[in-house]
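Progress note, sequence design subtask.
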C-alpha cells in the first residue's frame, strides 16, 4: 500500500473508500450503479467521493478527476481485495454487456481462466478486424497457455489469428511457428486442404 494511495482515501468513510477502489479497478468512466455493484456498497456512497472532488461526473458516468489519482488508488488496493473487485467487475460487466477487451483484463486479474480464454480470443478477433494488430497479438498471447481446453479446430483458428496478426506486424519467424502449429493440428484432424 503506497502512502500516496492511502492519502487518497483520507477523510472518506469505508463505503466511499470501497467506491474509490472499485472505480480505480474498473479503470474507466462508469455509471454509478456499475461502480456500486462492483464495490458491493450503496451507490449513495459515490456522493461522498464526488463532493470531495476525487470523482467527477462525465455525463452519466463517473471517473477520477486525475488519472494519477486513479493509479495511486489502484496501487493502494490490497492484492486480495483487488482480485475480488476484478471478479465483481467481470460479473457486472458481463451482465451489462461490457467489451471483450475489458472483460479479458478483469478475467485475467480475477484469475478466471475460462472467462479469460473466451474474452481474450473474442477481443483479439475484434482488434484484428479493425487493424489493431499489436493489441490482437497481446490478446492472443494471453490466451495461448489456455488453448488446451478448446476443440482442435478452435485451437487451430487461434494459432491462425495470432500468425496473421504477427505477420501484419512483420514478425515473420514467430508467425511461421503459429502457422506450423495450425497446420499440424489440421493434419491430425485429416484436413487435407
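Output:
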Amino acid at each position: 500500500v503506497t502512502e500516496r494511495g492511502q492519502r487518497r482515501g483520507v477523510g472518506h468513510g469505508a463505503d466511499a473508500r470501497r467506491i474509490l477502489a472499485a472505480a480505480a479497478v474498473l479503470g474507466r468512466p462508469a455509471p454509478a450503479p456499475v461502480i456500486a455493484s462492483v464495490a458491493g456498497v450503496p451507490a449513495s456512497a459515490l456522493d461522498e467521493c464526488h463532493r470531495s472532488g476525487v470523482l467527477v461526473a462525465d455525463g452519466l458516468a463517473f471517473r477520477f478527476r486525475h488519472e494519477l489519482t486513479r493509479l495511486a488508488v489502484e496501487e493502494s488496493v490490497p492484492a486480495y481485495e483487488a482480485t475480488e473487485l476484478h471478479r465483481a467487475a467481470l460479473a457486472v460487466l458481463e451482465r451489462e454487456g461490457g467489451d471483450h477487451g475489458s472483460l479479458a483484463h478483469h478475467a485475467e486479474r480475477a484469475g478466471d481462466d475460462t472467462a479469460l480464454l473466451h474474452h481474450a480470443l473474442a477481443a483479439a478477433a475484434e482488434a484484428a478486424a479493425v487493424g489493431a494488430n499489436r493489441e490482437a497479438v497481446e490478446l492472443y498471447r494471453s490466451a495461448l497457455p489456455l488453448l488446451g481446453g478448446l476443440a482442435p479446430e478452435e485451437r487451430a483458428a487461434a494459432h491462425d489469428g495470432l500468425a496473421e496478426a504477427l505477420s501484419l506486424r512483420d514478425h515473420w519467424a514467430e508467425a511461421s511457428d503459429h502457422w506450423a502449429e495450425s497446420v499440424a493440428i489440421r493434419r491430425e484432424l485429416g484436413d487435407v486442404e
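The chain is about 70% helix and 5% strand. Work on this subtask will continue into the next period as scheduled.
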